[in-house]
Amino acid sequence: MKIIKYNVYLDGGTIEIETDNGVFCFDKRMRSNTKGRLYRGYPKKDNSNIIENSTELEKKLLEGLKSYKDEFYQGAIDYFIKSKEKN
Fold this sequence. Notes:
Layout: E1 3-8, E2 15-19, E3 22-26, E4 38-40, H1 55-67, H2 74-86
Antiparallel strand pairs: 1-2, 2-3, 3-4
């Protein structure tokens, strides 16, 4: 999967990854009941865009991030990859 853009929201740190297959977000919102879960796009209030059984997709996103380089976010990307690999 090719990563096009990496972004972090100021809502507590939700991570947005734009790919050649769409936009995905890892939930890090403050007071969220779904922290760490993967969404198609930014998490909706009703969680209707949460991705169930996302293990394989998460692996593909992490592999894509390993080869993606971003001058501004590289430290955050490296930290995110390491934190997900521990799980």
